[in-house]
Amino acid sequence: MNRLVYLFLLIHMNTIAQNPIKIDGFFDDWISITKTYFDSEYDSQSTELLNFSVSNDNEYLFLRIKLGNEIDLTEAYVNPAELFIYIDADNNSSTGYATNNIGSEYGINFFGKFIFDDSNINFVDTLSFYDLDIIPLPTITSDEFEIAINRSLFSDTIAISIKESIGNDKMPDNGEVFTYTFDNSIFSNIQSTDFSKNEPTHLRLMTYNVLSNGLINNNRVDEHKRIFGSANADIITFQECGNTDYNDVLEFLNTNPTYYPYIYPDLNSGNLTISKFPSIQSWQVANKIDAELIDLPDSIYATDILILNGHPPCCGNNQGRQEHFDALIQFIHDAKTAGGVIDLPINTPISFSGDMNLVGYSEQYYTIVNGTISDTETYGNGGFPDWDNSSFKDQVSYLNEKNIAYTWNSSNPSVGDFPPGRLDFIFFTNSVMNCDKSFVISTEHMSPDLLEVNNLLWSDTKNASDHFPVVADFIIEFSDEFIQNNLENNEIECFNYNINLNQGWNLIGFGCESNKEAEVVFFPIIDHLIIAKDGFGNAYLPSWNFNGLGNLERGFGYQIKIAGDIENYNICNH
Question: Up-side HSE of residue 218: CA atoms within 13 Å toward CB?
């Protein structure tokens, strides 16, 4: 039996404002959303509609739709499905297109990639997804999707109907009507992410598909120079640079105040890696995946980093993408074991970034993250890619001033164009490195103040490419030399020493009144502590019950690695 579920809180609590919906293709933030419709099961001849939930902020209507099996929202797939969302924008069944007991002003046809506009009684118009600022994620196949729709054309109360046309399944059905009243007290409460590093020692990586050799296109090169300068990345992985050679890059860089002496173009793959630091060795992992082992300065970091730059085949070439990602996992496992074409020192950080073209089967995404190889005869058995036998971390990055994570859109949208999607990714081994902050640069979504402080124009990313740059700042283990040179005599008064520790590596100065044994100092956080070390290679490893560190000495610096964030830890409260 159908159930239209309305759950109300007895005490007013702005749950959504406290836990805003983020449009990123992940769904943990929907747990607290209570406005949900549950459909009858097994009443479809094809893909089953199970339930949908609704929320909003001051700008968007948000929907989450759960299905009985994976589908491709905008293209043909093994499980055929054609999904429609009908919105009665004025909650008046006598206006608009009559369907499922509502009068729909806007009928969103995801498979056809257009919108029926029935808001004018005299004629039916068709709109593109971009006319209503529709953003559905994930871009890969899935059995659930979250969708943002600009609410500016909607009244405060609307009615919603969802249909899968091949199986003729509907939500709601049996004559019921689902209405939703916007909560106008809800605002997104987004903290703007600025462009600056939180610490100068963080390693900044940027990945960017510049669209058809954009770095040498006279019509777009100025936009690219402003974007490049604003990011001030340490390492950049570019894509679509197949006709951009070494001298072209030198010319592009000649007006940039930051010095980038190391340029690694691959004219065959179209991938281009630029770095402030040299590459020790290069590899061709697959036709369109390149690797550089970047020699990070020993004066700061305890390790080098393997940078993988990828741009696998686009669009309907699911097999080609899968082969590339199978080859990626084979290469990473080769790097982690003795023999083969590459041997990395244990716990060398690894990052895989680029335009992944993840627009098809979800299997490809999970090959990257979990190392599940499809063609095991050719590429081996695979396995988790991180050093601790865990998944790659997918660094989900959002626009600087919006809780939205797409990285591609149509530059000149029209009816039939694909909606915005998340195509550009940064994956990394988060057992040995951590991400401090990340963001997606989209100038058309920035406030005037943010544009001005970063010397950008509103149209820069719109004109430069159909992709947006993705930026991530990494925390990597510091070298003993760096600790010795930067944290000796870093005394802090004991009575004022409450500190916050972030997951991953932290530098601390021990400023307590007297020396103390490591076991005593770190006992309050023993469940979170992975390792503590000084600037001379001595370490305390609680999981091994090994204390080579001995005492922490007043006035000296230490590096500690934490499994999770800790607030207000008093290091002197023994």
Answer: 0
Report pLDDT digits (tens) over 377-396: 999 999 999 999 999 999 99
Distances (CA, A) of 475 to 204, 294, 353, 434, 525: 9, 15, 17, 5, 21
b vs e for 3-28, b when ≥16 Cβ sit within 10 Å of the residue's Cβ? eeeeeeeeeeeeebeebbbbbbbebe
Residue type present at position 123: F
Side chain identity at residue 116, one-letter code: F
3-class DSSP state of 523? helix
The answer to whether the beta carbons of residues 476 and 540 sit under 8 Å apart is: no
Q: Which residues contact 12 (CB under 8 A, 6 or more apart)?
A: none
Domain parsing of the chain, residue ranges: 3-181, 203-476, 480-570
In tens, the pLDDT along 73-125 reads 999 888 889 999 999 999 999 999 999 999 999 999 999 999 999 999 889 99
Secondary element (H or E) of residue 222: helix 221-231
Omega before residue 172 within 30° of 0, cis? yes
Helix H or strand E encompassing 137: strand 135-137
Q: Is 412 exposed, middle or buried (0-12, 13-18, 19+ CB in 10 A)?
A: exposed
Instruction: Report which residue type is found at 516.
Output: K
Helix (H) or strand (E) holding 62: strand 60-71
User: Per CATH, which fold does 203-476 belong to?
Assistant: Deoxyribonuclease I; Chain A (3.60.10)
What are the C-alpha distances in Å from 244 to residues 105, 460, 528?
Answer: 48, 20, 47
Position 4 scores a pLDDT of 40
Query: Cβ(79)–Cβ(87) under 8 Å?
Result: no
Is residue 497 pLDDT above 80, yes or no? Answer: no
**What SS3 state is found at 221?**
helix
Model confidence pLDDT, tens digit, residues 431-451:
999 999 999 999 999 999 999
Q: Are strands 106-109 and 135-137 parallel, antiparallel or unpaired?
A: unpaired
Single-letter amino acid, residue 312: P
DSSP-assigned letters across all residues of 304-346? -EEEEEE-PPPTT-HHHHHHHHHHHHHHHHHHHSSSTT--PPT
pTM exceeds cut of 0.85: yes
- Name the residue type at position 451: L
Question: Which candidate, 428, 437, 431, 474, places its Cα nearest to that of 563?
Answer: 431
